[in-house]
Write a structure and sequence with these properties.
about 260 residues; three-stranded antiparallel β-sheet; 8 strands; three-stranded mixed β-sheet
């Protein structure tokens, strides 16, 4: 999927394989009808050059409507769609299809039906199948590889229910330990901030919030240190850039061990 104007996503590549035979049914570029502002090549595997070449050779479908129409030539309302995080695929195709088997849902339910965590396809392939996918670096994911990998994960889950249950139990225990770790870390930060407040009250007029020089600039690093994050003993590099991923991980969502990849599923 690529990012287009208006903060929306558009399908740029559609890969479909037969679940029973693994035969390739569709593997085609979809030319967006809305100007693309971010090709998300790292995740989509599609570059402007690749799309231009496919278009020049007449090997593209025109937008999501034509892509959906072509897909319906191979499926019907009774077809069971198999994949990973299929809601994203259905969203960009503007489809509602209730007959699905989703490897992400199977994994989540194996751990805890109430869990809100999502296990990515790369993680599932690595831990359940012992294979590595999505390792092409900056060239991006291989859409067909992902489709076939999701098929293999679902097959594994269906054929090995006891092993899936064991995997889920181990992950549940791990999540419990991680939750406790995050709780302790949060309490630690709270104590550091309280200590910082006490230190500021002793400093008096030298407190950073009192500015007499109108030309003095307030940096985020000043605010962070003033709030005790990170702790003054650890120092702070003014050249460091704060990312949303850092903030998310600091808040424990998702846990740093899992990383954060919003388009990998």
């Amino acid at each position: 999927m690529a990012g287009v104007r208006g903060g929306m996503s558009e399908i740029v590549l559609l890969c479909v394989a037969d679940y029973l035979t693994s035969e390739i049914v569709m593997n085609v570029f979809i030319r967006p009808t809305i100007p693309v502002i971010d090709w998300r090549t790292t995740f989509s595997g599609v570059t402007p050059a690749a799309m231009a070449a496919a278009t020049a050779q007449g090997q593209t479908l025109n937008g999501w409507r034509e892509a959906r129409r072509e897909l319906w030539n191979h499926i019907d309302v009774d077809t069971i769609l198999v994949g990973q995080s299929l809601q994203h695929d259905l969203d960009v195709l503007r489809m509602i299809h209730t007959r699905v088997v989703d490897s992400a849902i199977m994994a989540r339910k194996a751990v805890d039906p109430k869990s809100t965590r999502q296990w990515g396809l790369k993680t599932l392939c690595n831990e359940l199948l012992g294979i590595d996918i999505q390792s092409n670096g900056r060239t991006g994911h291989d859409c067909l590889e992902d489709a076939l990998a999701a098929r293999e994960v679902v097959l594994w889950c269906i054929q090995r229910p006891r092993q899936l249950k064991t995997w889920g139990r181990l992950w549940k225990e791990k999540e419990k330990a991680q939750k406790q770790e995050r709780k302790l870390e949060k309490e630690k930060r709270k104590r550091l901030m309280q200590n910082s407040e006490e230190s500021k009250s002793r400093v008096g007029d030298t407190y950073i919030g009192h500015y007499s020089n109108g030309n003095e600039v307030l940096h985020w690093s000043d605010i962070a240190e003033d709030c005790g994050w990170p702790h003054p003993d650890t120092g702070y590099d003014d050249s460091e850039v704060q990312h949303w991923s850092d903030i998310a991980e600091d808040c424990g969502w998702p846990h740093p061990d899992t990383g954060y990849d919003p388009w990998s599923d």
